[in-house]
Design goal:
Blueprint (H helix, E strand, L loop, with lengths): L6 E2 L5 E2 L8 H10 L1 H5 L1 E9 L1 H4 L2 E8 L4 E10 L3 H14 L1 H12 L1 H5 L7 E8 L2 H12 L6
Parallel strand pairs: 5-6
Antiparallel strand pairs: 1-2, 3-4, 4-5
Length: 149
């Protein structure tokens, strides 16, 4: 499903050869270090625990330029579960709004925490590629009224 081509414009124009990150943490580290530039999202937390009941960790949490919460899920290669996992964490986030607002207050201050916009939370999935099942999951989720991307 990939079709994005990247080019290096230093010393002419050469296409950048795509390759998968050696480990998922490498990809996550690069994105988190440059999240505002790449995604327009202020970075808040990495590997954020959803607690013992849900037993997971949200790869990255952030706040977009509109004040909306953002969850980011990474997969180094193609993984049919990336969208479903991301939607699970997005649902968890919507059920734990106060906890997220406390995180925002701790990282960005009380003013930013008071202005969190819950009407448009975002899920960003970054993967080596996506399957037809991912496309279907996004389509069905949009029909339910939430835009996950």
């Amino acid at each position: 499903m990939s079709g994005l081509r990247l080019f290096n414009t230093e010393n002419g124009m050469t296409e950048v050869t795509p390759h998968l990150a050696a480990v998922e943490a490498d990809l996550q580290g690069v994105v988190e270090a440059h999240m505002e530039t790449l995604l327009g999202v202020r970075f808040l937390a990495s590997e954020y625990s959803t607690g013992p009941v849900h037993g997971g960790r949200i790869d990255s949490l952030g706040l977009d330029e509109n004040g909306s919460p953002v969850t980011v899920e990474y997969k180094r290669s193609t993984d049919a579960g990336v969208i479903h996992q991301g939607l699970f964490y997005l649902s968890w986030l919507m059920d734990h709004r106060r906890e997220f607002e406390h995180l925002v207050r701790d990282r960005l201050g009380a003013t930013a925490a008071a202005q969190v916009l819950w009407s448009g939370p975002r899920l960003i999935c970054i993967a080596g590629d996506f399957t037809r099942y991912d496309v279907h999951a996004v389509r069905e989720h949009r029909r339910s009224g939430l835009d996950p991307l």
